[in-house]
């Protein structure tokens, strides 16, 4: 019972920090966007992204710190392969830099594409520290279906989209997407133990639908190219990742004990 109480406390701390701190800036309750608009774009965008992702990221770091006092955690930034995680993240960065992204800032499209995708990837990493890095570890004792459904629901609650002008249908669609995303990205996290690999899949979903820095700067064909090329190459990388990890685990088991 004591361990269960500690788990509820950790979850409560994470959710309170994540929801309150991030949404202060996501809903611009302090009018920070007006202040940031006076800064150069290459400073404004990263700062805004950091502020909007700060709650879930800080909440995750605190949650992980408390959780690691109880037991070891497995999911980390690079997971079981730093090189493969970095290779996965490089693919959308290269694609957006080559294709370029139209923008209202007067920045050359290829340069803006690089800036926007790097900033967006950093934001996705910050979010993934919460949903996969902390929450998936915290709830690892639950059956997978229950775990992914709960993470997806909490992910939806964090956005507070039901407090906006979004319709019931739009909220339901968004909830279903997050439930499915929780399962899909959760599978990536489970197999790679990597927050960065998870953030890559988070990123392409953002590019296709929600990302304010990129989505209106790409046409439909360009989005399909980014999605198709990224997913195809990631599947190859993940297959190699799984194979290599399996071989390493098998080799470590087969090594005879030293005398």
Main attributes?
about 260 residues, mainly alpha
Describe the 3D structure.
The protein is built from 9 helices and no strands. The radius of gyration is 19 Å and the shape is globular. Helix 1 packs antiparallel against helix 3, helix 6 (144-159) packs across helix 7 (168-192) and helix 7 runs antiparallel to helix 8. The longest helix is centred in the C-terminal third of the chain and has 35 residues, at 220-254. By secondary structure, it is mainly alpha-helical. Helices cover 76% and strands 0% of the residues.
Q: What is the helical fraction, as a range of percent?
A: over 70%
Strand element count = 0
| Unreliably modeled segments | none
Major beta-sheet overview: none
SS strand fraction: under 5%
Number of helices: 9
| Quaternary form | single chain
| H/E topology pattern | HHHHHHHHH
Distance between the termini: 43 Å
Radius of gyration: 19 Å
Query: Overall 3D geometry?
Result: globular
Q: Helices and strands: which structural class?
A: mainly alpha
Arithmetic mean of pLDDT = 93
């Amino acid at each position: 019972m004591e361990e269960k109480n500690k788990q509820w406390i950790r979850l409560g701390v994470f959710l309170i920090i994540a929801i309150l701190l991030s949404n202060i800036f996501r809903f611009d309750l302090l009018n920070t966007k007006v202040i940031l608009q006076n800064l150069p774009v290459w400073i404004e965008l990263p700062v805004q992204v950091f502020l909007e992702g700060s709650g879930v990221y800080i909440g995750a770091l605190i949650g992980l710190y408390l959780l690691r006092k109880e037991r070891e955690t497995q999911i980390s930034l690079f997971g079981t392969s730093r090189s493969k995680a970095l290779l996965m993240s490089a693919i959308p960065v290269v694609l957006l830099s080559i294709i370029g992204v139209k923008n209202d800032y007067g920045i050359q499209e290829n340069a803006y594409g690089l800036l926007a995708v790097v900033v967006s990837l950093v934001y996705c990493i910050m979010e993934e520290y919460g949903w996969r890095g902390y929450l998936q570890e915290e709830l690892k004792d639950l059956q997978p279906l229950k775990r992914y459904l709960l993470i997806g629901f909490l992910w939806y609650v964090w956005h507070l989209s039901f407090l906006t002008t979004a319709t019931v249908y739009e909220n339901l669609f968004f909830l279903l997407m997050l439930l499915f995303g929780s399962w899909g990205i959760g599978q990536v996290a489970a197999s790679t133990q990597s927050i960065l690999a998870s953030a890559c899949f988070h990123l392409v979903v953002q590019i296709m639908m929600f990302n304010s820095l990129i989505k209106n700067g790409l046409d439909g064909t360009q989005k399909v190219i980014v999605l198709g090329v990224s997913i195809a190459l990631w599947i190859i990388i993940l297959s190699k990742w799984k194979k290599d990890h399996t071989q390493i685990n098998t080799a470590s088991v087969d090594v005879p004990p030293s005398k």
